[in-house]
Amino acid sequence: MTLTIIGSGPGGYVAALKAARLGARVTIIEDKEVGGTCLNRGCIPTKSLVASVGALHTAKRLAEYGIDIQGEIHPNLSKMMERKDKIVATQVRGIRSLFKSWGITLIEGRGKVLTPGKVEARKKDGPTEVIETDKIIIATGSRPAELPMFPLDGEHILSSDHAVSINSIPKSLIIIGAGVIGCEFACIFRELGTEITMVEMMPRALSSEDDEIAALLQREFIKKKIKLFTGVTVDRVGRDDSGIHIYLHSGEELIAEKLLVSIGRAFNVENIGLEALGILKGARGEIVVNDRMETNIRGIYAIGDVTGGPLLAHVASKQGLVAAGNSCGKDTSMDYSVVPSGTFTSPEIGSVGLREHQAAEQGINVKVGRFQFRMLGKAHVIGEITGMVKILAGAASGKVLGVHIIGPHASELVHEGALAMQAGLTAEGIADMIHAHPTLSECIMEAAADVNGEATHTMKQ
Fold first, then answer.
1. In this predicted model, what pLDDT tens digit does every residue of 208-222 receive, in sequence order?
2. 423: in domain
3. Known catalytic membership, residue 245
């Protein structure tokens, strides 16, 4: 069986490896660099910068740990970028090595579906090739959305792609959009000393998160002196020698050296052959697929951001496994009921499952348990006491329906909650399991116990 994949991001390259393991002869076409947005311009670059500013934050507090240092500590942006680029290059080489190991053919160029059995590859260096194939997977991903009001130039008005390669620390920065990407960059640049102002049209930052979690992050923004305007829209944008001018509908004017636009993602569906084949697209331009990741054209699959589902690398990878399996004759389907997510702000956020406001909207009766990190010995040991764990359980069943964490290592800790949901465990079951001491995971145990009012380290009411 032959399989051709267009796009080598976290969906495409994982699908290629899965299909190769299943015995398929795989060709993958990539017009930029293997690893896609996640590896080259998204997840890995931003988290590399998060790690650098996290180290900077700790270094500034070394006296709290009993360590004396001489002189002031300053960030070196060029070295941070150098480190980030080295990490990305290492991961890119790793994917290319995996392709060679599994006999996957990589064509560097632009792919286009001609028929259900033919794909055109316009090579970067070489002639155009038409590949005959049994099955096709489209994994072309997404890019930062653009609006005419915010003409991206890479110097004064930036997208997230530009921000991960910026060559100087701006004195001031306005961020349009307080979603995951906007909030992460706000924390990165604020730690570097940039004055941050955020503008969000929704009533609060991180509108997709649980209300309490988002509210706690907003309080931390106040402590960090990050200005946040919510429930407002932008009327117009101007630029002069004094910087970027943002005129809000509320009548306020904001001025900063640079502007970062973080207003969502656009799907890469142009010029890849969808219209000629009659492949269905949704209202937002996304490729429509079923739970087997197959389009309306038999034998043609689509995965990752281009399908418009949760725009998360790990979701794309799982979709890639499903599509690759089905293209090789298996019968598997996607299950989105348990999808953990991490937001790498300061403090960090990890979430999975139902939010409390969603439970109310859906008429689901829940019991809620909470526990603060400041009540843990381990949190004090590492000097990170801000945050909490919040667990939602079915009022009648006691089964865990959602786990939401803000605090140290939240993106790692949330997987205990995800596993509990996957296995159908109750909050009581988590609370009954012995957790090692001293660890941050004890916060999950205590929050689970608090669902039934039985947390150990709480004051008598």
1. 999 999 999 999 999
2. yes
3. no
